[in-house]
User: Fold this.
Amino acid sequence: MLTSKYITERGGRMNINERWLVEESRKGNIEAFEELIKDYKKSAYNIALRVLRNVEDAEDASQEALIKIFKSISNFNMESTFKVWMYRIVVNTCIDFKRKKSINAVSIDETIDLGSGREIRREISDESNNPDALIDRNYSTQLVNDAISKLDDDFKTIIILRDIKGFTYVEISEILSCNLGTVKSRLSRARKSLKELLEKEMSGLRW
Amino acid sequence: MSCNEICDKLSLYIDNELSDEEMRQMEEHLKSCENCQKELEEYKDLISILNSLPDEEPPEGYCERLHEKLSDSSVQFQLKTEKSAPKIKKINRFRWLKYGSIAAALVLVFVAGSMNNFRFSGSGAKSKNEAAYDYSDSSAENKSSIEAPREALPEEERYEMGYEGQNVGEIRGQMYDVNDSDSAMITSLKAEREMKIIKTGTISAQTEDYNRFLNDLTVKLGSMGGFLESNNTEVYQVYNDNKLMYGSVKIRIPQESFYELIDYLESSAEVSRKNINETDATKEYYEKDNKVKNLEIQEQHLRELFEKANTVEEMLLIENELRRVRTEIDALNISLSDIDDRAAMSTINLEIEEVMTASLTLKAKDNVWERSKNGLINTVNGIIRALENLVVNIISSSPLLIPFIIICLVGFFKIKKYWKKHTP
Assistant:
């Protein structure tokens, strides 16, 4: 009902619809909130997926974040855009989730013991010898994904926000609660680091 | 600008985040430096790939599960949507489980507690049973100590019976001079009848110190010429470390001291029930007495006949008759001596209960404030006592209770997990 009634306009700043949906969500209106996060929940999930590299964890973490957003929406003061505010919560929740999980984190190509003697070997497709992987100017999506996953959390987050999600520097500084200079230098270093990682992979491939 | 500096700023250049001055320098450098140009291209390629990285679709049912969780959290907003109903049900079920297990634990505590009590009273391990039979004015003392067969605590469970001279069979008739029987009969008929009144009392009392009370009573009885005919003492309740005693005592007291003793009992313990009974046995007594005397006369005549008997047959007949008369006299005499005994020595059946605080010490004439204060104190004491008992019961039943609670908790979490898994 709400969907048909209020067409959300995608834009950088808070529009009236979004404000109205936020107000409704504050009253505990789930449908309004779902409408509000309709366009964001997928990227929230994807951020979580990139940080946690695991479908189940990504779902748990992103949903935890969204619920946190719903519960604390009364604390949202409309100063920043809702988008920025909610991504801050998503990023922080995912990082926290990973930190909590890191105790029993598993390597991506290690065997996982499921108990009672059953083991599964993580299937990482080995495309190093596949010529098709060298399309797209030698950067395959798979390689890029692997490289991103090898980045430190700080670098990973900023790459996700800037280059994958397309946030502006100012928005990123708000999301990460740091100043613009930090964003600039961190992004530069993150990109450099990612590029080096990829080059290393590529040289390994060419060899 | 060196190539290194340029490289560091390529990222910002791509995003147009450089100042105009820096931008101009950068463009100049890039025109002349192929390496940096290549580097820039690589960065652009990388970023374009990153920009085009496809978003993965959330797994199936993501939105439904999210909605479920949102509904959960909206319960806190007290917003009741239709879909949140099953969740509430679930919560209620767990609440039921939680309170149910608490209730079960409490039931267990009380069962364990009552089992404790049962053990004390049931096995009788702590009951004291003493009985003393004392037949006065006897010289022979015959004490025997019999060990009860299944005794765990011999010093407490002693069954002591003292027999002191049995004069029950004493036959009054023998005291009469056979030769004087006629005149004795006349005097007895003419003599002023002595009243034969049997006094019995039943008293229930409470005391704070059972043993002291009983000792005092024994001393008092000794001075009055009475005695404890039987004493049956048992522990009827254990309060913390205090054993509360209950005793059923049979007192024999010379009838002239009967009321004195009752007064004494009333002053030394809290009498909750008193029942005094006086039975006039005078008529019954003298009827039996006359019968005895007539039978004795008859016996006398039979003896005279016996002297005159000539044949064995006659002698046997008379002897049979004599034996019959003698038995009748003996029976009547036993009855008479019993009445004598009961009239001379009154009986008091005393039930004594040991209490923590003599609840009847409250003066009924206290004013309202005093009474309500005491009532309050009693209530508070009662609550404290109940809590103490609860703690004692919980601790004493902890070997049972702790595994039970652990099982409950494990079960609770298993079920919770199960529900979490099987509710979308």
Q: What stands out?
A: The first strand of chain B starts at residue 128 and ends at 134. Confidence is low (pLDDT under 50) at residues 78-90, 118-190 of chain B. The two ends of chain B are 60 Å apart (CA to CA).
